[in-house]
Write a structure and sequence with these properties.
The complex is a heterodimer of chains A (114) and B (114). Chain A has no helices and twelve strands. With 114 residues, chain A is mainly β. In chain A, strands 2, 5, 6, 10, 11 and 12 form a six-stranded mixed sheet that branches. The radius of gyration of chain A is 14 Å and the shape is globular. In chain B, strand 4 and strand 5 form a beta hairpin. Chain B has no helices and eleven strands. In chain B, 34% of the residues are buried. Chain B is an all-beta fold and 114 residues long. In chain B, the strands form two sheets. In chain B, strands 2, 4, 5, 6, 9, 10 and 11 form a seven-stranded mixed sheet that branches. The chains are: A mainly beta (114), B mainly beta (114). Chains A and B meet through strand 5, strand 6 and strand 10 of A and strand 5 and strand 10 of B.
Chain lengths: 114, 114
């Protein structure tokens, strides 16, 4: 079956530090890949996505590149802010078939200190 | 306007009671979902409906019964509540069941069973 493995947290950084959260996946075929973010007390929001190999998703200074050869979709940001403190989820969905469902990683808690 | 809304936001109840959570989306989407997030933030899909038809039912106890009166609404009724049902329940919607469609999440309902 499909699965997503992301680095365990929590991750604690100082403001303006570089962020990487690793994500690798196992899936049949070529799934679509997503990063969702959950701010404290809120629901999940889409941060970025990529639907085919070598695509780069980007939003709010965050980037992730769909790497088919390493089955990875690592999240990066060059300079984090306190407001980036949240839980980050990597997820995939199969692109074929009608009963698609989103499979999530376990989430990585990021805390950014001023 | 809120895209995906849920009521109530908090629900505290005794073991053995029956309760319902309501979800509405105003995005015109065809597909709606229920997810359960446990205390470790792990997210798992429970149900998915497409055009009021159940398409995903993930080995959820039959005490949980979803109902979709129309495309914009998906409610979750839980009978004979147990301590292990305590969690945050998220509703979500997407344009269709196609892989790659972004899912939009509600703010969550925190259920506490005493």
């Amino acid at each position: 079956g499909n699965s997503v493995t992301q680095m365990e947290g929590p991750v604690t950084l100082s403001e303006e530090a570089f962020l990487t959260i690793n994500c690798t996946y196992t899936a049949t075929g070529y799934p679509s890949l997503f990063w969702y973010v959950q701010y404290p007390g809120e629901g999940l929001q889409l941060l970025l996505k990529a639907t085919k190999a070598d695509d780069k998703g980007s939003n709010k200074g965050f980037e992730a590149t769909y790497r088919k050869e390493t089955t990875s979709f690592h999240l990066e940001k060059g300079s984090v802010q306190v407001s980036d403190s949240a839980v980050y989820f990597c997820a995939l969905s199969p692109r074929l078939g009608s009963n698609y469902k989103l499979t999530f990683g376990k989430g990585t808690l990021l805390t950014v200190n001023p | 306007d809120t895209a995906v809304s849920q009521t109530p936001k908090y629900l505290v109840t005794q073991m053995g009671n029956d309760k319902s959570i309501k979800c509405e989306q105003n995005l015109g989407h065809d597909t709606m979902y229920w997810y359960k997030q446990d205390s470790k933030k792990f997210l798992k899909i429970m149900f998915s409906y497409n055009n009021k038809e159940l398409i995903i039912n993930e080995t959820v106890p039959n005490r949980f019964s979803p109902k979709s009166p129309d495309k914009a609404h998906l409610n979750l009724h839980i009978n004979s509540l147990e301590l292990g049902d305590s969690a945050v329940y998220f509703c979500a919607s997407s344009q269709s069941v196609a892989g790659g469609d972004t899912q939009y999440f509600g703010p969550g309902t925190r259920l506490t069973v005493l």
